[in-house]
Specification:
202 residues; alpha+beta; two-stranded antiparallel sheet; 3 helices; 15% helix; 30% strand
């Protein structure tokens, strides 16, 4: 009787797990941690005042030929309660097409002018080059690609890589070293001729 009860309990656990991870046919579920390394806080009107955080995240999915399939929205399921100074961490989940082999992770991008149907079967360069960010909006980007010789699905390969995506900002951290001599005293510096707009991906 004890053995039968144990077998029954195991079966119920598997059923519950399968229900939680159920996704539509042709899709796989992704769960990943997004980490944004610390950067010195910039207090100026030229930087997005609410940019120190991820308001939304869109995943751009490409197939094994590097051609665009579709986008997917990643939802924040958990956020780290004790990130390091200036760092941000969160756990996201999303459903992507099962033939996805490359993903561009893009946070805080304004998607209102991106017409997805116009870019189907276009290359990564064609799709990502039309997405721009401004100097006044903090955008975060990362890319993950499956190993070409690895037949495992992208969710398996992402899990094998630690389920962690390190994102970079579209704003650079700039610093200057004050030379220790009697001829020059640096009291500040101002960048000029900077780009007002740029692509969100390199």
């Amino acid at each position: 009787l004890g053995i039968l009860a144990a077998l029954n309990a195991c079966q119920q656990d598997r059923t519950a797990t399968a229900t939680l991870d159920r996704v539509p046919d042709g899709y796989v579920a992704l769960r990943f941690d997004a980490e944004i390394p610390a950067m010195q806080e910039v207090v100026t009107r030229s930087v997005d005042p609410d940019g120190n955080g991820v308001q939304n995240m869109t995943l751009f999915c490409f197939d094994s030929f590097g051609l665009f399939i579709s986008t997917a929205t990643a939802d924040l399921s958990a956020q780290s309660s004790e990130p390091g100074p200036g760092e941000m961490e969160g756990t996201f989940k999303a459903e992507v097409p099962e033939n996805t082999r490359t993903i561009h992770f893009l946070a805080n991008q304004n998607m209102s002018e991106f017409q997805e149907d116009d870019f189907r079967s276009r290359s990564e360069a064609e799709v990502m080059s039309v997405l721009e960010g401004s100097s006044g909006r903090m955008i975060y980007w990362a890319r993950f690609a499956c190993a070409p010789e690895d037949d495992r699905s992208i969710d398996e390969q992402l899990a094998a890589a630690g389920n962690t995506v390190e994102m970079i900002r579209n704003h650079a951290r700039i610093s200057i070293a004050n030379p220790d001599n009697q001829w020059l005293e640096v009291t500040g510096f101002v960048p000029y001729n900077t780009n007002a707009f740029g692509t969100v991906a390199p």
